[in-house]
From TrEMBL:
It comes from Virgibacillus profundi. Belongs to the CvfB family. It holds the Pfam family WHD_CvfB. This is S1 motif domain-containing protein. PANTHER family: CONSERVED VIRULENCE FACTOR B (PTHR37296:SF1). Residues 152-212 form the S1 motif domain. InterPro entries: CvfB_fam, CvfB_S1_2nd, CvfB_S1_3rd, CvfB_S1_st, CvfB_WH, NA-bd_OB-fold, S1_domain, WH-like_DNA-bd_sf. GO terms for molecular function: nucleic acid binding.
Length: 282
């Protein structure tokens, strides 16, 4: 059987009303008129991508994809369907499904339309083509070694793995970056393009990246978040500069040091006061 999900050179066997019948190794595939922009003649050779239509018939297209079986490339997310997965554009008329089984457990960090995933093609149990996101091992072979000059520089990249520990990205220069959960205020989506700041260039050529602003910039944002919690709590929150770091992170998603800096700013401005382990709005 002709291998689906691959690019093959086939011979035009004959022309029919709906298109062309192609042949290779005594196997046939149908090339519809809307899948080619050129007129073909019998015995002419043509390079096509093979997939199966809704009826399971082997179908060909001269629109060659950016990825195929065992070859990886970037694909744009075009549609996301809850409980099913995400459809990506691989450069052909047929959009490929990334199954929910290959996406994060929580749908709030699934990709959205416009995000990018680094995928290859595979098959499900029924032999249907699927887009499969690259694993960590694949990225380890693909990445370039980051230079030391990138320290403190801005970088942009797409998220290819995200979980409670942190998010891994591939930058636009093909460097691998890791964003620890303490260096992000919210967990980015799989496939999302994020911009951050390099806080470490590691010996293995990978980067540690922060999505948080510099301390002098983040202090104002953190202070605003504290004021917002105070207003929601009728002017009092059960936090002070002596509170447990994990409790602080659980509510404000910032470190205890950042929390204390923001408290100090608000106290200096005369907006709050601390008493008996609580913070009060003045």
């Amino acid at each position: 059987m002709l291998p689906l999900g691959t690019i093959q050179t086939m011979t035009v066997l004959r022309k029919i009303d709906s298109g062309y019948v192609l042949q290779k190794d005594m196997e046939e595939a149908l090339l519809h008129h809307n899948e080619t922009e050129i007129e073909l003649e019998p015995d002419q050779q043509v390079e096509v991508f093979l997939y199966s239509d809704k009826k399971g018939n082997i179908t060909a297209t001269t629109q060659l994809p950016t990825v195929q079986m065992d070859e990886f490339g970037w694909a744009d997310v075009v549609e996301v369907i809850p409980n099913l997965g995400a459809f990506v554009n691989i450069g052909t008329t047929k959009e490929m499904l990334v199954s929910k089984d290959d996406l994060p457990l929580f749908e709030n960090v699934w990709p959205e339309a416009g995000d990018k995933l680094f995928v290859t093609l595979g098959k499900d149990q029924n032999g249907r083509l699927l887009a499969i996101p690259a694993t960590e091992g694949v990225f380890a072979r693909e990445i370039a070694l980051a230079p030391d000059e990138l320290l403190n520089q801005k970088v942009s990249g797409n998220v290819y793995r995200t979980d409670r520990e942190g998010s891994a990205i591939i930058t636009e220069e093909d460097y691998r970056g890791f964003i620890h959960h303490t260096e992000r205020k919210v967990e980015p989506r799989l496939g999302e393009l994020v911009e951050g700041r390099v806080i470490e260039v590691k010996e293995d050529g990978t980067l540690n990246v922060s999505l948080r602003p510099l301390k002098q910039h983040s202090m104002g944002e953190d202070a605003d978040a504290i004021l917002e919690q105070l207003e929601l709590g009728d002017g009092v929150i059960p936090f002070s500069d002596k509170s447990d770091p994990e409790d602080i992170r659980g509510t404000f998603n910032i470190s205890k040091a950042a929390f204390k800096r923001a408290l100090g700013k608000l106290m200096k401005e005369g907006k709050i006061e601390q008493l008996d382990g609580n913070t009060y709005l003045k």
